[in-house]
Amino acid sequence: MIQVDQTLCIGCGQCQADCFSGAIQVREGKVQPPEGDCLLCGHCVAVCPVGAVSIPDYDMADVEPCGTGPAVEPEKLLRLIKERRSIRRFTEQKIEKEKLRLLFEAGRYTTTAKNNQDCLFILVQEERAELERRVWGYVESMEPEWREDPLLRNFVYFLRRYQRDNREDTLFRNAPAVLFVCSKRPLDAGLAAQDMELMAAAQGLGAQYNGYLQRLVESSRELKDWLGTGDRTVAACMLLGYPAVRYWRTAPRKSAQVIEK
Ligand SMILES: Cc1cc2nc3c(=O)[nH]c(=O)nc-3n(C[C@H](O)[C@H](O)[C@H](O)COP(=O)(O)O)c2cc1C
Question: What is the 3-state secondary structure (H, E, C) of the chain?
């Protein structure tokens, strides 16, 4: 729950004005701890000019002072977005713990609907070979049914290619790590995944969303149990590692489809 240090509170009302649920109120010049629904979104902590509000349910040591303007210049952010590529060739180098930590931080701080904070980040690096074995085993077990389905037939085709030469791996691309972002609200997971992809790019890592692998894993209770997704949807799957390719220029795009009224 929210705590207000009444000795610090100046009754400015910023927390009340920023509160989504109207749970926090200023009465007699002081903020009262919220009554009713509170999302624990932390806006009252963030907006208080004197640091009078805290939420002991969280680690308050995490809270950092903000700068006076955006932390990244727009052109630099756009440059990162334009220069990031979906990586389909990786080196064997594993991803260091510190870089993984920053990926998880990027996911953790991404917005979620109703401040749900329900995303689960499953990073498979140590047991990557076992994941691959299980996934290909699953494809093989489904082959008779999937042969009949035009969309799913792709998986059988991938399997055959992989069996001929295990460097021809459409699902894993020999990436040293695979990230699954899971949530009961797939958009929350998608947003977190995108921030994580940008954080990967900012650290010189390469990432590739893999829609095929995501669909495969999401369709298998056994794989989901092995990963530990619980009842969450596997909304995004991302191959991760160091790129074994250098891009010399950005890739072209169609014009943006925009309606401005
Ligand atoms: C949801 C999603 C799923 C994707 N799935 C795959 C995939 O299974 N295999 C693959 O090689 N690329 C996949 N991609 C990458 C796209 O093909 C890629 O974005 C596109 O080729 C443009 O390249 P760029 O990301 O380098 O700009 C996926 C991208 C998204 C957003």
Answer: CCEECCCCCCCCCHHHHHCCCCCCEEECCEEECCCCCCCCCCHHHHHCCCCCEECCCCCHHHCCCCCCCCCCCHHHHHHHHHHCCECCCECCCCCCHHHHHHHHHHHHCCCCHHHCCCCEEEEECCCHHHHHHHHHHHHHHHHHHHCCCCCCHHHHHHHHHHHHCCCCCCCCCCCCEEEEEEECCHHHHHHHHHHHHHHHHHCCCEEEECHHHHHHHHCCHHHHHHHCCCCCEEEEEEEEECECCCCCCCCCCCCCCCCCC
